[in-house]
Design a protein that fits this description.
Layout (H helix, E strand, L loop, with lengths): L3 E6 L3 H11 L11 E4 L15 E2 L4 E2 L3 H12 L4 E2 L3 E6 L4 E5 L3 E9 L17 E4 L4 H13 L4 E6 L4 H11 L4 E6 L5 E7 L2 E6 L3 E4 L1 E5 L30 E3 L2 E3 L10 H24 L30 E4 L4 E3 L2 E3 L4 E3 L2 H9 L6 H8 L3 H9 L3 E4 L1
Parallel strand pairs: 1-2, 1-8, 2-5, 8-17, 9-15, 10-11, 10-15
Antiparallel strand pairs: 3-4, 6-7, 7-8, 12-13, 13-14, 16-17, 18-22, 19-20, 20-21
Helix pairs in contact: 1-2, 1-5, 3-4
The chain binds flavin-adenine dinucleotide (FAD).
Length: 388
């Protein structure tokens, strides 16, 4: 028994796309999986940060647009998102244990999409009083102008390495002394993090607190290479990023997607890898549950021996543990799920109470008789999964 088929670590574009794909593969009657996202900050990741755009040559999705769409699916499919910090992902053989600052969760598969390791704890404050540079300075000019206009008389603290001066020069040119500027050079040791208090943000160093109304971290001045996810022990490349194969696989049951796998750092890549990791984790879990390849036709045209099973729900076995994936409402004598309905009768209500991922189908059959037709209806309606 475990908590979810798939646990996704990280709520950025990679993690959210992975979770949606793993939960609900839109292929014929495919059986959904149970999924949970754990993210130490509200969903969005870096992609929700000011001015981040998913771009092509002739189009651009504004900040948050991609995330809003992904979040619609997350909410629509009732995928729980827990705001906790993952400390460790432990491989226990058949399952994984994900240890957070608030508890432990178990799963058959894990997708690590925790993004790149930041310099300190800046993720907690990103998008508010704290912001950063990345990908060249061109778009920063507008941002600086707006800030200097709106925050005249206030203080901005610039943080970076010795190479920070280039950004500072640009800011000073735009600022024309409207804002007070402070500079903190990070030698990798003296900064201890950031903290917001009473309308101010502080840069905490070994021996002082530097107060300001805004903080700008000049990521461009840092050498962004030795950045990795230390929450999981696995093979990493020479600069510390998690190594995956073309299908986002790391080890048996372990997948990784997005910035955590290394450059290029972009939303498009994060969404692409997240989708792949989601589908691959789905296939992995399906094999664990039913002992056969998932018929994910169109995503993976596969040539199987024997008859194709695209229209069939796999064999229901006594060891399967049915688990409801969605809430339901009772109205006018019907039990209504998002995509399916049941008649409101005592047997159905009792069955739904036992579909909690803890009771085995064998026990349920012993108590209620043959419930297979209703279970299959709920699987078709994407309202139930069979865990193992
Ligand atoms: C300033 C800036 C500008 C950018 N501009 C662009 C742009 O214009 N176009 C573009 O395509 N890309 C841009 N990018 C890059 C893009 O934002 C990233 O490549 C993309 O967000 C990566 O997605 P991800 O899901 O892999 O990681 P992230 O977006 O970083 O998400 C990682 C998630 O994991 C969570 N997390 C981290 N550690 C833990 C933990 N221990 N436990 C639980 N949760 C954890 C985080 O809270 C976060 O929700 C920019 C990045 C920055 C910083």
């Amino acid at each position: 028994m475990y908590d979810r088929d798939v646990i996704v670590v990280g709520g950025g574009p990679a993690g959210l796309s992975a979770a949606v794909r793993a939960r609900r593969v839109r292929t014929y009657n495919l059986h959904s999986s149970s999924v949970m996202v754990i993210s130490n900050a509200p969903p969005g990741g870096l992609a929700d940060w000011t001015k981040v755009r998913m771009t092509g040559d002739g189009w651009s999705h504004e900040k948050g647009e991609v995330i809003d769409k992904l979040m619609n699916d997350i909410e629509d499919y009732s995928i729980p998102v827990k705001e906790e910090k993952v400390l460790k992902v432990k491989d226990q053989g058949d399952t994984f244990t994900v240890v957070t600052d608030e508890g432990e969760y178990t799963s058959l598969a894990v997708i690590v999409a925790a993004g790149m390791k930041m310099t300190w704890n800046e993720r907690e404050y990103f998008g508010g009083k704290l912001f950063g540079t990345l990908k060249g300075y061109r778009f920063m000019e507008d941002h600086f102008e707006k800030l200097c206009e709106e925050e005249e008389g206030k203080t901005i603290v610039f943080v970076g390495t010795e190479k920070l001066d280039k950004t500072l020069e640009l800011f000073k040119e735009i600022n024309q002394e409207r804002m007070e500027v402070k500079k903190v050079i990070d030698h990798g040791k003296n900064i201890r993090g950031y903290e917001e208090k009473d309308d101010e943000i502080m840069v905490l160093t070994e021996d002082e607190e530097i107060h300001g109304d805004h903080v700008l971290i000049d990521f461009e001045s840092y050498q962004l290479d030795a950045i990795t996810s230390d929450i999981v022990e696995c093979e990493k490349d020479e600069t510390g990023f998690i190594k995956t194969d073309k299908r986002s696989r790391v080890n048996e049951g372990l997948f990784a997607a997005g910035d955590v796998t290394g450059p290029p750092f972009s939303i498009a890549k994060a969404v692409g890898e997240g989708t792949t990791a989601g589908l691959e984790s789905y296939r992995y879990v399906y094999r664990k549950k039913f002992g056969e390849e998932a018929p994910v036709f169109a995503f993976y045209p596969i040539h199987q021996e024997g008859e194709p099973t695209y229209f069939e729900i796999p064999e229901l076995e006594d060891h399967h543990r049915p688990k409801l994936l969605d809430d339901y409402e009772i109205e006018d004598g019907r039990i209504i799920f998002r995509d399916c309905e049941l008649e409101k009768k005592e047997e159905n209500i009792r069955l739904l109470q036992l579909c909690d991922g803890e009771h085995r189908l064998g026990e349920i059959r012993d108590k209620l008789g043959n419930v297979d037709a209703v279970i299959k209806e709920l699987i078709h309606g994407k309202a139930l999964t069979l865990e193992v």
